[in-house]
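Researcher: Next entry in the queue.
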Amino acid sequence: MAIKAGTLVSGLTAAAMVVIAVLAAQASGSAPKTPAAAHSATPPKKSAPAKPKPKTYPLPLHSGIGKRVVYSISAKRVWLVDDGNKVVRTYAVVAGNVAPSKGLHHVFFRRATGTGGDGKQVEHTVLFAMTGGVNVGFSAAVDGSLPKPDPAKQNAAIRATRADTAAMWQFATVGSAINVMP
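Model: Structure for this entry, 182 residues:
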């Protein structure tokens, strides 16, 4: 039986088209998109860069119970702690060169505004200890500065930002507990 040349060419062409279609289907899953196809497709959503977790400052162990202010000399940090032992605020401080004694103290004086021992205008002064005849307490410079204390002068101010000392002012009234930790 003889196959006509035209039939043979048509059959081979049809088989080649099937093979090309199969290969094209397989390649479509892994082939890069052409520039024209890339413009027509929905652009991929970019994920936002991961935000670093804020650093946590756990309340020091054995810092007391009940509503209190905890001040760590070595950490240069304050924690405002409510009755349920929950930290409602924590913040860094810049301490003077006269440190209070470690242990439990109580707020004995508050002043809304005045002049600090370093001559700066201050606000939200909360005094809680006395060391060597010098009052020790928290305050903020009205100009917002947080300079390191002059080592040539006695300075017992524990300075923080104006917002942080405003929170202290609301929290620590006369008689409030201040626990000074190492």
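Model: The first strand starts at residue 68 and ends at 72.
Researcher: Noted, moving on.
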